[in-house]
Design a protein that fits this description.
With 341 residues, the protein is α+β, with helices and mostly antiparallel strands. It is built from seven helices and 22 strands.
């Protein structure tokens, strides 16, 4: 009978139910920490040896979760990479269905051009490249620059939704404004232009600037010290980047947040369905993933797979950028969270 099943391309549920329908999520991806001190020298070496241009398109090195059999995925739904652009280099324009963002942990001098709009990239900035937007990058300095990219490539790949198209051989606008046109229109606190009252799938804000993120987190912790309820838990300030046309997430498949822990703070242990990736922007501390504690320093990246218990501790003030697949999980109503008492 089983041989007949195999020849007919059939599989019986009764031999596989434990793997296919576990009592709780049993992710193949494992908790893991990548060290910036290891990533950056490798990116610099790639900068010396690997050109940027048509074919490879980007000098981006993906974080490959050790539990996923060598695939270039940080989790089954998310892709993360360190991208490196050398002095005076240009990464040519292209576009794809996959949604993307950039987060800058250090450096400046690169402009990403999104649908013809030049957007300056600076330390602490969170920058969007929603799906099917033409984009390229150009470095106008004599110094290299590295940042992290996040995309929904694995989810798009498994769902067979991907399209890709080449753009111009360079970038469509080589100017270097301090502020993009998208920011000039959309980045005024609490104010929405009447020219864009329709709900947009992804946020029209091209860059969420560090000075605004920093100010929001600083005020939360200051208000807490003044006795006002302003933080998610004691000593833990947090903000979510949002789409001003809907109030929801910045892109349909990716959520982005920023967390600041006051020195000595430990977060409550929690478990979430779905994946979260953290990058240390500043400070030092530790993260406990499934009972194993790892130290964290500037630039380090940690992945928390689905339903893995985690908690973070700040040795000194600790700034953490975070992104996740929460919009996918929530839209499909698979979301579940357990916060330990």
């Amino acid at each position: 009978m089983y041989a007949k099943f195999e020849s007919a391309h059939l599989n019986p549920l009764w031999t596989q139910i434990g793997d296919l329908m576990p009592m709780s999520p049993s992710p193949q991806a494992i908790p893991y920490v990548w060290r910036w001190a290891d990533l950056l020298p490798l990116a610099e070496e790639a900068g010396r040896l690997v050109p940027v241009g048509r074919g490879g398109e980007r000098r981006a090195i993906a974080l490959a979760n050790p539990g996923l059999g060598g695939r270039p995925y940080v989790s089954p739904t998310l892709w993360a990479a360190i991208q490196y652009l050398g002095p005076r280099e240009t990464a040519p324009e292209h576009r794809h269905s996959q949604n993307a963002f950039r987060f800058v942990v250090e450096g400046e001098g690169v402009w990403t051009v999104v649908n013809g709009d030049p957007v300056a990239m600076r330390r602490g900035d969170f920058l969007l490249t929603p799906g099917w937007n033409f984009h390229g990058h150009h470095n106008e300095t004599d110094n290299p620059m590295a940042w992290i990219d996040g995309l929904d490539i694995p989810f798009s790949y498994y769902a067979d939704t991907g399209f890709f198209e080449f753009g111009c051989e360079g970038v469509s606008d080589e100017s270097m404004p301090n502020i993009s046109r998208a920011e000039r229109l959309w980045s005024h606190p609490g104010l929405r232009p009447l020219v864009g009252l329709d709900a947009k799938t992804s946020s029209p804000i091209a860059a969420y600037r560090w000075e605004h993120t920093d100010a929001a987190l600083t005020e939360q912790l200051t208000l807490e010290l003044e006795g006002y309820p302003s933080t998610t838990e004691p000593g833990h300030a947090a903000v979510r980047y949002t789409n001003p046309t809907t109030g929801g997430d910045v892109m349909p498949t990716i959520r982005a947040e920023f967390h600041r822990l006051r020195s000595g703070t430990t977060t409550r242990t929690r478990q979430d369905v779905g994946t979260t990736v953290f990058q240390v922007f500043d400070g030092t501390g530790s993260i406990t993933l499934g009972g194993e504690t790892q130290q964290l320093a500037k630039g380090d990246l940690a992945v928390v797979p689905s339903w893995v218990p985690w908690t973070a501790t700040a040795d000194n003030d600790l700034d953490l950028f975070a992104f996740s697949d929460a919009p996918i999980i929530e839209r499909l109503h698979f979301n579940r969270t357990h916060i330990h008492s």
